[in-house]
């Protein structure tokens, strides 16, 4: 486990040498459910959309899937500015929200979006063998659940271990508080059931970089549950899991954390 400082953040800014000279395009509002298998309600047509920001190049580039935060009750798809012009294909995903749907549906949507990326990202110069899944808060929870629970992508005939890396920002590793609320469980009472990433710890998961805010400034228990997830992954023999605690930053720690995500992707794909 490491505590990230401003000095560290300023030293992990590797960029592709050509990134600033490459032109980028964006394809917006792509429906990611299979039209043959979904009923496409009006709410699905509104929320089950994604945007793809991609470089106009002749090679395949790493892909970052980004899930927005908002407690599974609010928020909208986004392409973070800090991830643009870095030589990556970036996918911003929208998903249905509680109370319009049960909160577990958010996980189902997130998984369907990841499956869509695997099957379609080459159209946007993305490398299906270099897909990284990330997000902030509720988005971090969705990133973890959709990959750690292998049964979810298996329903799409995909192996979650094909993911190149997981980088949740301040994500729940216990069962999400909105799901607990639906079950009448107080937010102060932790729960580790099959809707908790901790329930699915295993040694063959993709490489993982956990990032949280300062333990004294974060949301209730958020650092500690990530630290427990980190420790249990190590106990299970996972060879590549790291936890960063962002000194001095609270739950809204995305901007100083983005360089760590960029560096992680660059290192795992050997980009300079």
Residue ranges: pLDDT <50 for 5 or more in a row?
5-19
Could you tell me the strand content as a percent range? 15-25%
Count the domains: 1
CATH class: Alpha Beta
Distance between the termini: 25 Å
- Sum up the overall morphology in one term: globular
Average pLDDT for all residues: 93
- What percentage of residues falls in helices of 4 or more residues? 25-40%
The named CATH superfamily: Alpha/Beta hydrolase fold, catalytic domain
Query: Rg, please?
Result: 17 Å
- Total beta strands: 9
Query: Based on the structure given, which CATH architecture is correct?
Result: 3-Layer(aba) Sandwich
Largest sheet, in brief, is: 9 strands, mixed
The secondary structure category is alpha/beta
- Sketch the topology as an H/E string, one letter per element: EHEHEEEHEHHEHEHEH
Strand order of the largest sheet: 1-9-8-7-6-4-5-3-2
Describe this structure in a few short sentences:
The protein is of the alpha/beta class.
């Amino acid at each position: 486990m490491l505590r990230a400082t401003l000095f560290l953040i300023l030293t992990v800014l590797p960029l592709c040498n050509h990134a600033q000279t490459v032109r980028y395009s964006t394809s917006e509002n792509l429906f990611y459910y299979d039209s043959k298998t979904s009923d496409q309600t009006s709410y699905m047509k509104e929320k089950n959309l994604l945007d793809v920001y991609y470089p106009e190049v002749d090679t395949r580039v790493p892909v970052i899937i980004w899930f927005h935060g908002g407690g599974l009750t609010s928020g909208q798809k986004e392409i973070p500015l800090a991830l643009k012009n870095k030589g990556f294909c970036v996918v911003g995903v929208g998903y249905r929200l509680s109370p319009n749907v049960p909160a577990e549906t958010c996980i189902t949507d997130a998984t369907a979006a990841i499956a869509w990326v695997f099957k379609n990202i080459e159209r946007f110069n993305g490398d299906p063998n270099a897909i990284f899944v990330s997000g902030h808060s509720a988005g971090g929870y969705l990133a973890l659940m959709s990959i750690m629970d292998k049964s979810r992508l298996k329903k799409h005939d995909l192996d979650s271990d094909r993911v190149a890396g997981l980088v949740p920002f301040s994500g729940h590793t216990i069962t999400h508080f909105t799901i607990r609320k639906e079950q009448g469980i107080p937010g102060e009472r932790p729960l580790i059931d099959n809707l908790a990433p901790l329930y699915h710890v295993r040694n063959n998961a993709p490489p993982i970089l956990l990032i949280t805010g300062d333990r004294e400034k974060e949301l209730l228990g958020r650092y500690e549950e990530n630290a427990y997830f980190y420790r249990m992954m190590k106990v299970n023999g996972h060879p590549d899991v790291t936890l960063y605690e962002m000194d001095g930053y609270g739950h809204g720690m995305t901007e100083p954390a983005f360089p760590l995500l960029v560096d992680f992707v660059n290192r795992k794909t050997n980009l300079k």
